Amino acid sequence: MITGYNTDVEYDGVVYHVQTEDKGLQTPIILSLVYIGGAILASKRAPYDDLIAGGFDEQILVERLQRQHKLICAAVHAGRIEDLKRMGEREAASIAAARERTSPAARVRESDKQAEEADRSSSVPHVDDAPLTVKLINDPELRGGKSILLRLLVTRFAEGRRTPAANVKLVLKTLGTAFATGTIDSSTDNRGMAAISVSLPEFRTGRAAILVQAEDDGITAELRRIILPSYE
Known about the structure:
Radius of gyration: 19 Å
Number of strands: 12
Structural class: alpha+beta
Shape: globular
Oligomer: single chain
């Protein structure tokens, strides 16, 4: 999975947050979300099954991710918020239609696992409907040896919309093959926000990542980002 992009875009005195990320090869879509005050206003999903079928090229995926993020940011900057909302509604309608066309007989013939996999391949999951999500508001470079401040937003999904999740427990872990795991505990404020300062361990070989885990009444959500090796 490729690290995504986070950008604040101002239009008419209002600051919108645009996030674009790759959901990974198990769910091959590029997802862009437009937030304001912790609520999702619009979304854009772009499948890249064609890249997998034609021989996966990560550089092409990176270019698509960058292009989609820039296009969404440009649309917000131009004040085309309603256009973005309508685009998201059309995508949701297409997904619903695809689910409606799924044959019940085919579901009976397959095992539970096969049916679940077929459903994932024929329709794009609504990550907007996840009961709990944790997102990065800023996007600092994660490099070994650096001290950074991570700004996080946690939201709940209830009654058809996302709302900020206050007083949610957060655990940030620094994981790596060349150093011991570090842990920092925190929690969200009444806006669903949290700011966590962390000193990333210095390393030059191996792999490393940060893992942020949110927990709210037994419901969990995770965010993972790669840590780059220290400079020589």
